[in-house]
Amino acid sequence: MAISIKKIVSIGLGGLMLGSTFCSGAFAVEKVGDVDSFVSDIVSGNNSNIDIIVGSNSVASDVVSAANIAAKIGSLSFLEQNGKSAAATLSIASKSKSEEFNLIGSGVTDSLFAVSADDDYLSIITNADFHSSTNLDATGYVSLEDLGNLMEISDTDPSSWFTGSDNDVSAEFLFLRLKSDATNWKVNSDEMSYMALLLDENLGVPGGLKCMSPGRNIVYLGEEWTLMGMNADADKVSMGKEVYRGTLKEGKSYFVNGYEIKIDSIITDSTNYKVSAKILKDGTVVKSAYDTAPLNLISNGIGIRFQKVYESIDSNAAYADVVIVNSVKGMELGSEVIPDYEIYSVLYTGGTFRYTDDFLKGQKNMGLALKYVGDDLTGLGSDDTVEIANYANFLFDDEGKSATTLSVFFEMNEEKEVSIIQNQKAKVLNVEVIADKISAESEQSTILNAPVVKLDTETSMESSENPLILVGGPVVNSITEELVNAGLFAIDDDSLATLAVVSETANGNDVLIVTGGDRDATAEAANALIAMI
């Protein structure tokens, strides 16, 4: 097996060059220092030895930018396989932290703490729209803003797959009801939840809530899935990982995981269209269907959804707009899908959110929830951690045993592996990965590691063993601030998107700063760097 993994090496330049403007597609950025050489070494080396640093107080967009840079560098690794299909498994990791809240002197005795992928979606917390049956109807409400690793995906409406983007998103939320217990704190069973809700990004929650339906893409525990079914008889939701989204012509096939998905015929009476399709393995039919679209066909972990069927303008050919998925899984509502957490559909009726384990016609199912059903967590205090759905944490920190401070906050330190086949798109922890080419000399897969994203509190200029990419300016990233204070880099609120190399400053290694005068400029600088790699 021939494996090529790219490496970043030390650059060792003598000083900063004058700034210049770099354009790549829609991205423009000021370059300071020999940015081109830094990026060239990313592309031409033999190992992905680099650390990407975000500030512990960074905004969510900085965390997303750092993760996207890591994924782009990681995607330079590939397997080579002689003409045979292959799969690669990418490992993606990053950390993020929400705003903090000091419990000491706050008067909190029963409050619901919440965080989301975007703080604009959290009007839900001020409106207190939780039915008593959810056990999330606290007497007080605290928004801890956004958490960078929490994920949202856009363009979830299948009706816009081939006609353009929409405003619909699926976004993640965390809710935890914290109560006082004498001098300590507690979280009771049923009073903690992970939710993935569908909404109009311009209207937020609850005003912009949307209904789940087969064909929609949704986020679930940091990964993008396509809803394939909401079975009312079994009260079961099924979903899969998108492999292909596009148009298939009548008589054509698509091959995935050793199976053939074939459209035999599309028949119309000029009003209605019916599609005849089947899934085959080694020429043998394992599942078939003949019905009007929209229509699902699922077997052996793969599936196809026929969203729309139509004829060409000259009526000489027929086509189907489809999404094809693999890794299909089904989850029964009300069942324990991970230890101590049961899955429910989320309803919004009568102005309140509720859980349901029963799909009924006419219900407005707005998303999925994982409800904590484990033991009550009592006696919580300094240095304790509450784990949420094996995905995120809620932490208590007295900041050095201070009598006047007991901060609480959400934090994520998540690593996920995503397996993809050639041309498959996957979004994990807000990082979108597309496998342009996967090949190798055998059918064996391997794990390819993207660079690790760290917080600025986890490293220093003196201890760093690798070159650094710093995402964010001096206000949010303490290492960037150190460079600014040392007079090695300058930036202000009016600065454009900037990429700057400071030579041999991180324990002899070079540093690339990705920043701008505000969060939008920083994101633009990150996108320009990604375009260069």
From TrEMBL:
Domain S-layer protein central: 111-441
Domain S-layer protein outer residue range list: 34-533
Alphabetized Pfam families for the sequence: S_layer_C (PF05124), S_layer_N (PF05123)
Tree of life domain: Archaea
Chain segments annotated as coiled-coil in the UniProt record: none
Xref: InterPro entries: S_layer_C, S_layer_central, S_layer_MJ
Name of the protein in its database record: S layer protein
